[in-house]
Amino acid sequence: MEAREEEEAEDPHAVVSGTLPVNHLFTQVLYDACATHCFINPATIKRLACEPDEMDVQLCVATPVGLIYQIEDVVRNCLITIHDKVFPIDLVLLEIQRHDVILGIDKTTIDSKRQLLNLVTPKGEKLEYKGTNHKQATLIILPEHLC
Fold first, then answer.
1. How many domains does the chain have?
2. Whether the model pTM is above 0.85
3. Does any domain span residue 13?
4. What range does the domain containing 51 cover?
5. Are 37 and 1 contacting, i.e. CB atoms less than 8 angstroms apart?
6. CATH number for the domain including 98?
7. Does residue 120 belong to any structural domain of this protein?
8. Nearest C-alpha neighbor of 105 from the set 39, 44, 59
9. Ordered per-residue pLDDT tens for the chain, 147 residues
10. Cβ atoms 28, 125 nearer than 8 A
Protein backbone atom coordinates (compact mmCIF):
# COMPACT_ATOMS: atom_id res chain seq x y z
CA MET A 1 0.00 0.00 0.00
CA GLU A 2 1.10 3.55 -0.46
CA ALA A 3 0.06 6.66 1.40
CA ARG A 4 0.04 9.80 -0.76
CA GLU A 5 -1.27 13.31 -0.53
CA GLU A 6 -4.56 13.79 -2.38
CA GLU A 7 -2.98 15.84 -5.16
CA GLU A 8 -0.41 13.06 -5.79
CA ALA A 9 -2.94 10.23 -6.11
CA GLU A 10 -3.84 8.81 -9.51
CA ASP A 11 -7.39 10.10 -9.10
CA PRO A 12 -7.06 13.00 -6.65
CA HIS A 13 -10.81 13.57 -6.59
CA ALA A 14 -11.81 10.07 -5.49
CA VAL A 15 -12.14 11.06 -1.82
CA VAL A 16 -14.81 12.46 0.49
CA SER A 17 -14.03 13.64 4.00
CA GLY A 18 -16.17 14.47 6.98
CA THR A 19 -16.99 13.72 10.60
CA LEU A 20 -18.64 10.40 11.43
CA PRO A 21 -19.14 8.45 14.66
CA VAL A 22 -16.96 5.38 15.14
CA ASN A 23 -18.23 3.36 18.12
CA HIS A 24 -20.24 6.49 19.06
CA LEU A 25 -17.13 8.76 19.13
CA PHE A 26 -17.06 11.47 16.44
CA THR A 27 -13.93 11.17 14.28
CA GLN A 28 -12.43 12.85 11.22
CA VAL A 29 -12.97 10.34 8.41
CA LEU A 30 -11.65 10.17 4.85
CA TYR A 31 -13.43 7.86 2.41
CA ASP A 32 -10.98 6.80 -0.30
CA ALA A 33 -12.58 5.13 -3.33
CA CYS A 34 -9.27 3.41 -4.14
CA ALA A 35 -8.66 1.93 -0.67
CA THR A 36 -9.18 -1.79 -0.28
CA HIS A 37 -8.74 -1.62 3.51
CA CYS A 38 -9.89 0.67 6.31
CA PHE A 39 -7.37 2.33 8.65
CA ILE A 40 -7.42 3.98 12.07
CA ASN A 41 -4.90 6.17 13.86
CA PRO A 42 -3.53 4.49 17.04
CA ALA A 43 -4.30 7.68 19.02
CA THR A 44 -7.96 7.29 18.03
CA ILE A 45 -7.93 3.70 19.31
CA LYS A 46 -6.94 5.03 22.73
CA ARG A 47 -9.90 7.43 22.66
CA LEU A 48 -12.20 4.55 21.70
CA ALA A 49 -10.74 2.32 24.44
CA CYS A 50 -10.48 -0.61 21.97
CA GLU A 51 -8.02 -3.49 22.02
CA PRO A 52 -6.37 -4.34 18.68
CA ASP A 53 -5.89 -7.93 17.50
CA GLU A 54 -3.09 -9.32 15.37
CA MET A 55 -3.99 -9.92 11.70
CA ASP A 56 -3.31 -13.21 9.93
CA VAL A 57 -1.07 -11.41 7.39
CA GLN A 58 1.03 -8.26 7.46
CA LEU A 59 0.22 -5.28 5.23
CA CYS A 60 2.95 -3.18 3.64
CA VAL A 61 2.22 0.57 3.68
CA ALA A 62 4.43 3.30 2.16
CA THR A 63 4.07 6.96 3.19
CA PRO A 64 4.49 10.07 0.99
CA VAL A 65 7.96 10.64 2.47
CA GLY A 66 9.06 7.13 1.53
CA LEU A 67 8.72 5.39 4.89
CA ILE A 68 7.48 1.81 4.72
CA TYR A 69 5.49 0.22 7.55
CA GLN A 70 4.72 -3.42 8.14
CA ILE A 71 1.24 -3.36 9.71
CA GLU A 72 -0.13 -6.31 11.64
CA ASP A 73 -2.73 -4.96 14.09
CA VAL A 74 -6.47 -4.50 13.50
CA VAL A 75 -9.48 -3.42 15.55
CA ARG A 76 -12.34 -5.69 14.58
CA ASN A 77 -16.04 -4.85 14.23
CA CYS A 78 -15.89 -1.10 14.81
CA LEU A 79 -19.28 0.46 14.24
CA ILE A 80 -19.34 3.36 11.78
CA THR A 81 -22.65 5.21 11.66
CA ILE A 82 -23.79 7.14 8.58
CA HIS A 83 -27.30 8.63 8.74
CA ASP A 84 -28.39 6.22 11.49
CA LYS A 85 -27.18 3.21 9.45
CA VAL A 86 -24.48 1.09 11.09
CA PHE A 87 -21.54 -0.44 9.21
CA PRO A 88 -19.40 -3.00 11.12
CA ILE A 89 -15.85 -2.50 9.83
CA ASP A 90 -12.40 -3.84 10.70
CA LEU A 91 -9.87 -0.98 11.02
CA VAL A 92 -6.12 -1.54 10.51
CA LEU A 93 -3.80 0.50 12.76
CA LEU A 94 -1.71 3.07 10.87
CA GLU A 95 -0.15 6.41 11.83
CA ILE A 96 -2.45 8.71 9.84
CA GLN A 97 -2.03 12.47 9.47
CA ARG A 98 -4.92 15.02 9.51
CA HIS A 99 -7.71 12.53 10.19
CA ASP A 100 -8.61 9.61 12.43
CA VAL A 101 -9.94 7.02 9.98
CA ILE A 102 -9.57 6.13 6.29
CA LEU A 103 -12.44 4.09 4.87
CA GLY A 104 -12.52 1.90 1.80
CA ILE A 105 -16.08 0.53 1.55
CA ASP A 106 -17.37 -1.74 -1.22
CA LYS A 107 -20.37 -0.79 -3.36
CA THR A 108 -19.79 2.97 -3.29
CA THR A 109 -19.53 5.82 -5.78
CA ILE A 110 -18.15 9.30 -5.27
CA ASP A 111 -19.09 12.68 -6.69
CA SER A 112 -15.96 14.51 -5.57
CA LYS A 113 -16.98 17.93 -6.89
CA ARG A 114 -20.09 17.90 -4.69
CA GLN A 115 -18.34 15.79 -1.99
CA LEU A 116 -21.09 13.15 -2.12
CA LEU A 117 -20.60 9.53 -1.19
CA ASN A 118 -23.24 7.05 -2.38
CA LEU A 119 -23.12 3.65 -0.74
CA VAL A 120 -25.15 0.57 0.04
CA THR A 121 -25.74 -0.50 3.65
CA PRO A 122 -25.15 -4.09 4.82
CA LYS A 123 -28.96 -4.54 4.46
CA GLY A 124 -28.93 -3.34 0.83
CA GLU A 125 -30.33 0.17 1.43
CA LYS A 126 -28.98 3.05 -0.69
CA LEU A 127 -27.47 5.93 1.27
CA GLU A 128 -25.93 9.31 0.43
CA TYR A 129 -23.40 11.14 2.62
CA LYS A 130 -22.34 14.77 2.10
CA GLY A 131 -18.72 15.37 3.10
CA THR A 132 -16.63 18.51 3.51
CA ASN A 133 -14.47 20.18 0.90
CA HIS A 134 -10.90 20.24 2.23
CA LYS A 135 -7.81 18.30 1.15
CA GLN A 136 -6.75 15.20 3.04
CA ALA A 137 -4.13 12.48 2.71
CA THR A 138 -5.15 9.23 1.10
CA LEU A 139 -3.86 5.67 0.80
CA ILE A 140 -3.50 3.73 -2.40
CA ILE A 141 -3.08 -0.05 -2.37
CA LEU A 142 -0.05 -1.34 -4.25
CA PRO A 143 0.85 -4.94 -5.11
CA GLU A 144 2.81 -6.58 -2.30
CA HIS A 145 5.95 -7.06 -4.42
CA LEU A 146 6.31 -3.26 -4.73
CA CYS A 147 6.58 -2.77 -0.94
1. 1
2. no
3. yes
4. 2-106+132-142
5. yes
6. 2.40.70.10
7. no
8. 39
9. 444 444 433 444 477 888 889 988 999 988 877 777 889 999 999 888 888 999 988 888 776 567 788 899 999 999 988 888 888 889 999 988 888 998 877 667 777 777 788 888 878 888 888 887 544 444 433 444 443
10. no
